[in-house]
Amino acid sequence: MRVFWSKGFDGTSLSDLTAATGVSRPSLYLAFGNKEALFKKALERYARDKLAFIDRAIEAPTARSVAETLLRGMLALVASDSDPKGCLGVNNLVACGAEAEPIRAEILTRTLAIKDSLTGRFERAQRAGEHLPCAGPAALAAFLIAILQGMALQAASGASPQELATLVDTSLERWPEA
User: Fold this and answer.
1) Residue 178, Cβ density class (10 Å: 0-12 exposed, 13-18 middle, ≥19 buried)
2) For residue 99, what is the DSSP state?
3) Does the 41-173 domain belong in CATH 1.20.1260.10?
4) 144 closest CA partner among 162, 126, 117
5) What is the mean pLDDT of the segment spanning 16-22?
6) pLDDT tens digit sequence for 132-178
7) Whole-angstrom distance, CA of residue 113 vs CA of residue 45
8) d(CA 31, CA 22)
9) What does the alpha-carbon distance between residue 40 and residue 84 come to, in Å, rounded to a whole number?
10) Is the CB of residue 66 less than 8 Å from the CB of residue 57?
11) How is 34-72 classified by DSSP, letter by letter?
């Protein structure tokens, strides 16, 4: 996961993967099939280990707390000194070449699933009488996805944790308390 996160799908060689896993090429192929299948396993692990804050956010009691949990969760992820910078999905979404179109498609499918979950959560909030700070649930979900992706890109480009925290604070200032 860390090799794909730091070098990208296209930039990761089989030698990188065998060095990281400690297994030979034949064993790597036997265990995972190919580089693309191994990347998908890395995405699954990344979602489970690093993006758990998204599921917590969707279960938050108010729409504003959904947004705050999402934004602060992403801030913690991308500002961490213990991980590669940026986000595994976002980094690979913008860096994959034409040969890696199945990788881009997989990342886009996962992003759409998150957006759909957020839209559904904001629709429930709206039906419960919460005021949403924009044109509607789908627009709000798209806005938050754009902020999360932007934070990941800025972190990968060297933005400081303080600069990223300002993005979170600015986004939340525009939101009614409840």
Assistant:
1) exposed
2) G
3) no
4) 117
5) 90
6) 887 799 999 999 999 999 999 999 999 999 999 999 999 998 776 65
7) 17
8) 13
9) 18
10) yes
11) SHHHHHHHHHHHHHHHH-HHHHHHHTSSSHHHHHHHHHH
